[in-house]
Design a protein that fits this description.
Layout lengths: L4 E5 L4 H13 L3 E10 L4 E2 L4 E2 H11 L3 E6 L5 H17 L2 E5 L6 H12 L4 E3 L7 H10 L3 E8 L14 H6 L13 E7 L11 E14 L5 E13 L1
Parallel strand pairs: 1-2, 1-6, 2-5, 6-7
Antiparallel strand pairs: 3-4, 8-9, 8-11, 10-11
Length: about 240
């Protein structure tokens, strides 16, 4: 019997790459494609800010097809769920049995993904789950992968750091409040080189831009409050 087919949830960042790396090393699955959600109007990956064209270059160098799902301009939760529902139906039609995610320790996110897939017949796989994030970053760099910080929360990063290649030394410069893998959303990355690529991606930093985001969180008292955060984005071309 052939190995079960899986799709890789693909942001273009280091955690997605490590999930892909581990799935390939296991030899237990057939990787059917990468899947990336981009903005319909921006043609970019959500909080990573990476343009569709760079994701395509990654897929070409990896030798794995990529499927793009476009999120309507309202970017609402309802719109996202509809987009994912349509995508999951296509996966089932293609004989895919599971989607691979690069999440490491966010329990709520894991439960959300599992719940989202539960009614579709697809399984959620988490090859990095509960890995120590310091060791995870060390393994990533030791394998020879190269990745640039494409987005960083201005609370922890300055403009000069965004757009740089991630290294152990750079992580040491950050505050103790930043997870080494940015698992809490402190930063995001774009992988441009490493052992799975047939050739590295020639990526250049054009400029660093600043954007503000407003969203709601539940504070320690259990109250819902509005938060405004500034993020720096590296315009990579």
């Amino acid at each position: 019997m052939s190995n079960p087919k899986v799709a890789i949830s693909w942001s273009g960042g280091k955690d997605a790459m490590m999930a892909l790396h581990q799935i390939k090393e296991s030899t237990d699955y057939e990787i059917h494609h990468l899947h990336t959600v981009i903005g319909e109007s921006t043609q970019r990956v959500g909080m990573h800010g990476i343009h569709k064209s760079l994701i395509q270059k990654q897929a070409d160098s990896l030798g794995i097809p990529v499927i793009f799902s476009e999120l309507p301009a309202d970017e609402s939760h309802n719109s996202y769920e509809k987009v994912m529902e349509a995508y999951c139906k296509k996966c089932i039609q293609n004989g895919i049995s599971a989607i691979v995610f690069g999440d490491i320790f966010l329990e709520d996110l894991k439960k959300y993904r599992e719940k989202q897939l539960a009614s579709t017949g697809l399984k959620a796989l988490f090859p990095l789950w509960k890995n120590d994030t310091t060791e995870q970053l060390h393994d990533f760099l030791s394998l020879g992968y190269q990745t640039k910080i494409c987005a960083g929360n201005a609370q922890y990063f300055n403009k000069v750091q965004v757009g740089q290649t991630l290294s152990a030394d750079l992580i040491k410069q950050l505050t103790i409040h930043v997870d080494p893998c940015g698992e809490n959303g402190e930063f995001h990355t774009f992988v441009y080189g490493g052992p799975l690529f047939s050739k590295p991606i020639n990526v250049v930093l054009k400029e660093v831009q600043s954007h503000f985001y407003q969203y709601k969180i539940e504070n320690e008292a259990g109250e819902i409050e509005e938060v405004k955060s500034e993020f720096y984005f590296a315009d990579l071309v």
